[in-house]
Amino acid sequence: VAMSHCSNLVGSFNDVAAIADKVHAAGGLIAVDGVAAAPHRAIDVKALDVDFYAFSLYKTFGPHLAVLYVRRSLWKDLAPQNHFFIEDSPAKLLPGGANHELTAGLVGIADYFDLLDRHHFRGPENEFHRRVARVYRLIEAHEGRLAERVLGYLRGRKGVRIIGRSSVSDGASEATPRAPTISFTVAGRRSQDIAEALNRERIAIGHGDFWARRCIEALGLTPEDGVVRVGIAHYNDDSDVDRLLAALDRVI
């Protein structure tokens, strides 16, 4: 079973651990795309009990590389993607040599999270993943507050269709919250026109299907125009949201 941890269009997190239980009970394997989840939550592949988990490391504020977790017991059964005689893990899944410049930059991700941890927490925490997890809890709270400001504004605008949950906490369980990835359409308006108008105001958002073609079509939208998508990250603040909402007032 292949699935996403979080939709990059609808913004909903899926309960991966619960789905993994069902998949394994049926004798299957589960592969998860975490590209839209990794910027907003700490990833624990053991807790999720997944067989494969992949995401882009630039989503965790690093270089433009990807990471793939494979359950150790499955390595021996995977065919080499490199030379046929390379069987050592993880080299056998690399189609070529590693990019040394970008690989060297990976340590900066750990440095960055440790810097955030030292800035916000006085008490020491020896395990790196625990430091990352407590930083992400701060990120979740901060992003959630900003996202609720945007969602609240959109809820109050006539003709606006919010894609997915209309509130950060609307109907969401602890396992399936909403990401601060907010897609919307406006009745009678092209998503492209709205995005381009905001870009002219130096607000960096996009429009389209965001590679979620089946999702866009299931929503009754056209892939060419798609949705307007606002993405909030932990380095955004209230002044950014103020600028966005003021610009939306002028645009829609």
List the helices and strands and how they pair.
Layout: E1 2-4, H1 16-25, E2 31-33, H2 45-48, E3 52-56, E4 66-70, H3 100-104, H4 107-120, H5 128-155, E5 160-163, E6 181-186, H6 191-200, E7 206-208, H7 213-218, E8 227-231, H8 238-251
Helix pairs in contact: 4-5, 5-8
How much strand?
A: 5-15%
Let me know the number of strands.
8
Give the proportion of residues in helices.
25-40%
- The radius of gyration computed from the alpha-carbon positions, rounded to a whole number of angstroms, is 20 Å
Helix and strand sequence: EHEHEEHHHEEHEHEH
Alpha plus pi helix count: 8
What is the averaged pLDDT score?
93
Structural category is alpha/beta
Which descriptor suits the 3D outline?
Answer: globular
**Sheet having the most strands:** 4 strands, mixed
Biggest sheet, spatial arrangement of strands: 1-2-3-4
User: Ranges with pLDDT <50 over ≥5 residues?
Assistant: none
Distance, first to last CA: 40 Å
Name its key features.
252 residues, alpha/beta, 13% strand, 8 strands, four-stranded antiparallel beta sheet, single chain
Could you walk me through the main structural features you see in this protein, from its secondary elements to its overall organization?
This protein has 252 residues and is of the alpha/beta class. It has helices at 16-25, 45-48, 100-104, 107-120, 128-155, 191-200, 213-218, 238-251; strands spanning 2-4, 31-33, 52-56, 66-70, 160-163, 181-186, 206-208, 227-231. Strands 1-2-3-4 form a 4-stranded mixed beta sheet, with no helix packed on it. A 4-stranded antiparallel beta sheet has the order 5-6-8-7, covered by helices on one side. Strand 2, helix 2 and strand 3 form a beta-alpha-beta unit. The chain is globular and about 60 Å long. The chain starts with a strand and ends with a helix. 27% of the residues are buried. The mean pLDDT is 93.
